[in-house]
């Protein structure tokens, strides 16, 4: 009863303040120049692709409802470039998705292209190159969307820290690409370093004095200076964590600090506590930590390798309780990642991720179920990854244009398989490892609900099955469930339709399956692929399309190559 | 009197055989695919740009009057590409000259472009990349044009051997380009190896056993197997020699064999004998040798560095007198190049090159004299090369299209300077080393006769003046004369108008000048530049244009970038 007098006040607030999002939202304008730079991300100098002369690229910070406008000048001397805004759905702007051969023609050297798109949903995102293997050359940065003015996150915190995780190879990406398409395969191996916010330490550890047999880092300053996370005691911090690794699955832990997971891929999740968390390439999270430990110490934040026998030193950062000096190293050993192949631990983490109350629920009746078998194959002696026995090769004419204007022979127009042999044994290497290359498209009925079963399998060698984080462009999807072995029809009954998390990236565990559902409600053509850069380069992806006939006003600049380029030149496009 | 009865027979031959050139000429069709390859040109494996999986690219062999059609597919994953046909004038086909930003837009990855042009003149030519520094990545090969059927060379020989010379760096060209445009400059240094037909030996010598302190080459097989020139005793051979080095000036000698120089850059010269010859990047020669030495031996052919303190092992090949085994190494030391800075020797060779009788003579009255001062400069702390204080920067829109369609603001349309300060002291570093970047064009009156004085000068450091081989696209020019120090008006009286050689490449010696004359009779836009790859990348060139309004039917594919690309898309070009 005592509450009642407040009611009119609340109404008033809603009417007068804040301004409606559409009026308060801003256009945020960035001018970027992409070029080669000398940089020493792990204290070893190398050549990277930088933005405005730096690595990583600038952090974009915006509010939900804002429009991002990036004027991107390509100053690479001979290479084209594009930038993908990972996790941004590009509602109404499929041409701004930044995937070469799918949403646009690569931007030529010396040309400037304008990316303009809305960030409609708060969350932790990032951006990266999506042409050749330019992401692995260092072309990436953070993109953080705050709630709109007047909106509130469903959790409180006193401060925020941002961690963009990646891995780094000393071999240049041209060499990496050539090796991956060579016969026999020359595998890129494990990365030389793991990076936190673009900084790492090659072949040494900040905590060497605590780890027998480890080398001490000398004079690690400047571009490879260790990341220091400055905090005050007894406060709550939001850590935003995203991984844009080329290869590595990661595990992150902060000494003595438990983490409450609250966001995954720009969607709120039902909060849960962990002491360490797995992060796969393409994923992002927010966790809350409370600085409730002895304030006289600093603490290690450690990032190690998961899912592959670690051959790379963990990346370390210092959680610096102020006013301690940041150079006061913690006196205990940094947290160690769980055993690399402790998949039970990894699964336990993934299974805990559930939608926060209020998250939209999936429609209950999918009209279509597509099963995608992930296999490692041989094509003409080259090692490839295939999906339902097709290894993806992107065509010279981006799909968005060729499909919108119904061009013939721009790609393989045959319907790709939606399932795989009933007797395929996912626990063994493929009986017939030969596969084909293709550019086929899964055409989805507009606004239909689609289930995809991602089915993992044994690779070419016995007893090998790897983790693959699959990333979907243009959509979030619900993760309905995971399972071991081959998916069977009756697994559908176990799908979580009550509180499945919404995400844009999800893993398949070794020998397992993952089921997702999404609504094909975003007119455009969208990549769906393993986010491991060399795996995608080896064909591990598919292309989805929906409502392409509804896409209007495709900027001509995005069409100026391949067959659409030729038609534009002959004035054969509207 | 006894000869008379033959007359009708001779007439008969002329009438019936051979067919007139225009009917006998062929279209020669090549399908090439450009891509990265692993290759070991000097027995150290590296990544190169190859054609059809090999390095160097395939040799094109044609007859004068033939049409060459190269269907070029770009299979580099993210880089554009073009190929310049060095020495081919591209009469009527200026868009096929293969110079990015001048004659065409770079060919995008996965695209195929068709080069089609006539080879009108017999001679020794080559082809190479002309985008970024792709030539230095290995994108080159030989192009040899024989006389038309029924025609005869003005000299006889029994056999022919082809030598394409180059130098090779282990650092990739992306790194080289970044270093060259960095502040401070990171100079590429001297090459790791010299190559003959794409083969060399890194850090060792085939003749190590004859040279104290030298290392023996081990197991030099396969891609770096030494070149063997198989000859029979007492025959005359034509050696075709061309240099496509990135940096090095070279000297070539064959043990005990004198060489009769008969051709330079596709033009016959008055034969003269030498025991060694200088070859600058961009030049080609034919020499005749007679295998008149003791037939029980093989002999060294040696290629060494000129004009720079040699830090690279000479390249060696074996002149193999059959039936000796090619593995029978000569028992004497290979010829040694003259002292690197013995410019008197170099000049003596250049001065001997004179036109063979019957070579067209230059018109006597040039309507214009352009003096081009070559200086090393600083622009915003970066080291550049400038011509009359402008360091060339190529625009995103190729000139051929932007000039043909009179686009505004596609490049700096102001007239570039035709001379330099009267008090400029070419013997000293520039008083004011600062320069500007520009994209200006020297517009030449169509069919006019133009003299260019290439004036060398002191570089940024005292007592440094380098050799620069200047190459003109689209034309041959007459070399009227050379001189030391600054060119003065009265030097005109010393011009050789009697038998100046026709060439497409000519050097300026340290602190000297070189005078050339040509007729601006080839409608198009043409590069004229130092053929040293890093010097061109640092701005050492100019752009010439003539009769551009007469150029018809520019293939749209060559215009599909920059401003012409945008206009094509808007249907604003005819």
UniProtKB/TrEMBL annotation, chains A, B:
InterPro entries: Cu-oxidase-like_N (IPR011707), Cu-oxidase_2nd (IPR001117), Cu-oxidase_C (IPR011706), Cu-oxidase_fam (IPR045087), Cu_oxidase_CS (IPR033138), Cu_oxidase_Cu_BS (IPR002355), Cupredoxin (IPR008972), CuRO_1_AAO (IPR034259). Its cofactor is Cu cation. It is an enzyme of class 1 (oxidoreductase). One of its GO terms (biological process) is response to hydrogen peroxide. Residues 1-24 form the signal peptide. It is found in: Secreted. CDD domains: CuRO_1_AAO, CuRO_3_AAO. It comes from the Eukaryota. Keywords: Copper, Disulfide bond, Glycoprotein, Metal-binding, Oxidoreductase, Repeat, Secreted, Signal. Its main location: secreted. GO terms for molecular function: copper ion binding; L-ascorbate oxidase activity. It catalyses: 4 L-ascorbate + O2 = 4 monodehydro-L-ascorbate radical + 2 H2O. Residues 34-146, 162-323, 428-547 form the Plastocyanin-like domain. GO terms for cellular component: extracellular region; plasmodesma. Its EC number is 1.10.3.3. NCBIfam families: ascorbase. Dimer. Belongs to the multicopper oxidase family. This is L-ascorbate oxidase. The gene is LOC103709578.
